[in-house]
Design goal:
143 residues, mainly alpha, 7 helices, 0% strand, flat
């Protein structure tokens, strides 16, 4: 799969290796920009550019999660919602009263754990439920 399709297309399936390599590529790119931009430009411009790149980097992660959720046998919407639940509570903190902060952190942490386990550790669902049922029925007839 081409890098453009990997990071920009919500359709398709990817395995664990492509998911982790794509996630690492996005994370290392953001880390490099966070280290390099303040040294190259004015601090105010660097903060503005970093805010834009952090928001823009959400889309490649959403594309990776949607493809991985499809590969796991689920809906791409599951991966998209997980990434939103991880990233968006951090941005909502500024607009919520102080009492909501622990709840927002809990939502983000739980979503991160679910995404790590489901998208990052679980094997691919090669066969859907219908194919698995047909395979079981075919195996029982031949015995």
């Amino acid at each position: 799969m081409s890098p453009i399709r990997l990071f920009c297309d919500l359709d398709g399936r990817i395995g664990l290796r492509a998911f982790w390599l794509g996630s690492a590529a996005v994370a290392f790119t953001l880390l490099a920009l966070q280290r390099i931009l303040p040294q190259l430009t004015d601090p105010q411009i660097a903060r503005t550019v970093l805010a834009f790149t952090n928001a823009f980097a959400m889309f490649p992660w959403v594309a990776l999660a949607a493809k991985r959720a499809t590969d796991r046998g689920g809906s791409p919407l599951f991966g998209i919602l997980l990434i939103c639940a991880i990233v968006l509570p951090e941005h909502l903190r500024l607009y919520m009263p102080l009492g909501w902060r622990p709840s927002l952190e809990a939502i983000s942490t739980i979503a991160w754990v679910v995404a790590f386990i489901d998208l990052g550790l679980m094997p691919s669902a090669k066969d859907g439920p219908a194919e698995a049922l047909v395979a079981v029925e075919a195996g029982s007839r031949s015995a």
